[in-house]
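Query structure, 418 tokens:
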């Protein structure tokens, strides 16, 4: 635990404690919501395609809105932007719960409401992350990277643990209503943060939002380290993350389980992510982070093959934990490297591109896997996707030395991210 002292220093600041507590509450609600709407879509349609479509509608708006959101977060009051976007998520969850309770919710209406939530989340992500330099001293920012990610993965453990019993005993409505309450709480904490004016707002507008968003794309694409690493992460997310986005069909068709099985699998993913995240945080150095970001993809691909190749549920739980652990190592290492190397003036826009990858790419993978699963079954498409991921791993290992030199040598501390 002595090696984790940096995390303690990050949490010693009042504003950081408020920020991370609100993050833990909102992300716990988010995971309860994800489990609930996935199960609801499965109950409504019994179709892996429509479960994938629900995930797609929640995550895909990032394709259009994340680059714009990054430019907006770099030029307006970030606290206010957080409040508006988080409040919209709370309203969306309340609408889903209310319409479902009234018996008026259709699969089409659910998809439309998930698009609404996805748009709001695309604006919330870069706004929250860009506030981090105003919450902790610069020396504690590297620890805040890990702390922010650990909050997300603790929520990924707690949320499914709550969702399973709530859905089993009370149905989907109270689970989704809980998410609305969680985001109301997170929204109300934002005005309590004491953030300096210089950190609440990025820069004065230098052009249109579209022009600044395009500049962010050009900057990342031309950077010799950030561009290749983000491309690697995007392809890996498309190929591998879809499995985690459409777990209900896997739970019922392969393992013959119900909501309890879904909650157990998601919780195991969260447990693996939590412990691996603590390990990454304890390293306390940039050296070797590129190798971790690349190599973790290979571990996740092999663990996913083991997950779908077996019908033994206990072994699947172990594979799920390995999937979560590898995904966490890849995510934290990639975020830290990208933000460490990014120019401060471009940081919000780089963060928005990472948000695009973490939201849109899993959505695309979930949609493709769900559609193929209806035709070929779930096992074959998943295994083929993992074999392709191993080929991408080979490309990443080939580029690794050049990326490491650029990404690991810069001396600036990174900004926290999920």
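Result returned for the query:
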């Amino acid at each position: 635990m002595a090696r984790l002292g940096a995390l303690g220093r990050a949490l010693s600041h009042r504003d950081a404690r408020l920020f991370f507590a609100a993050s833990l509450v909102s992300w716990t609600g988010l995971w309860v919501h994800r489990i609930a709407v996935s199960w609801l879509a499965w109950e409504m349609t019994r179709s892996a395609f429509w479960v994938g479509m629900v995930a797609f509608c929640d995550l895909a708006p990032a394709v259009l809105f994340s680059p714009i959101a990054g430019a907006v977060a770099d030029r307006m009051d970030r606290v206010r932007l957080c409040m508006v976007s988080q409040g919209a998520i709370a309203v969306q969850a309340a609408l889903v719960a209310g319409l479902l309770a009234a018996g008026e919710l259709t699969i089409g209406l659910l998809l439309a409401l998930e698009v609404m939530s996805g748009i709001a989340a695309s604006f919330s992500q870069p706004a929250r992350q860009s506030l981090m330099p105003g919450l902790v001293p610069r020396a504690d920012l590297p620890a805040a990277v890990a702390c922010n990610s650990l909050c997300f993965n603790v929520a990924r453990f707690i949320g499914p643990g709550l969702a399973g019993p709530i859905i089993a005993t009370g149905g989907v409505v109270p689970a989704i209503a809980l998410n609305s309450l969680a985001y109301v709480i997170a929204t109300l904490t934002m005005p309590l943060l004491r953030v300096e004016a210089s950190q609440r707002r990025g820069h004065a507008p230098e052009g249109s939002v579209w022009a600044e968003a395009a500049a962010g794309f050009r900057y990342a694409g031309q950077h010799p380290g950030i561009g290749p690493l983000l491309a690697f992460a995007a392809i890996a997310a498309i190929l591998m993350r879809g499995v985690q986005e459409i777990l209900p069909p896997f739970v019922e068709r392969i393992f013959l389980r119900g909501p309890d099985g879904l909650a157990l699998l998601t919780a195991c993913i969260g447990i693996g992510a939590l412990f691996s995240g603590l390990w990454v945080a304890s390293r306390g150095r940039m050296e070797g982070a590129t190798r971790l970001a690349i190599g973790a993809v290979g571990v996740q691909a092999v663990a996913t093959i083991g997950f779908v190749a077996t019908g033994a549920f206990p072994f699947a739980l172990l594979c799920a934990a390995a999937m979560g652990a590898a995904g966490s190592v890849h995510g934290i290492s990639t975020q830290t490297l990208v933000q460490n190397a990014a120019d401060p003036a471009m940081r919000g826009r780089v963060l928005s591109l990472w948000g695009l990858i973490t939201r849109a790419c899993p959505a695309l993978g979930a949609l493709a896997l769900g559609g193929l699963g209806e035709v070929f079954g779930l096992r074959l498409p998943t295994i083929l996707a993992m074999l392709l991921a191993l080929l991408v791993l080979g490309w990443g290992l080939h580029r690794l030395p050049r990326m490491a030199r650029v990404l690991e040598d810069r001396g600036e501390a990174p900004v926290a991210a999920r």
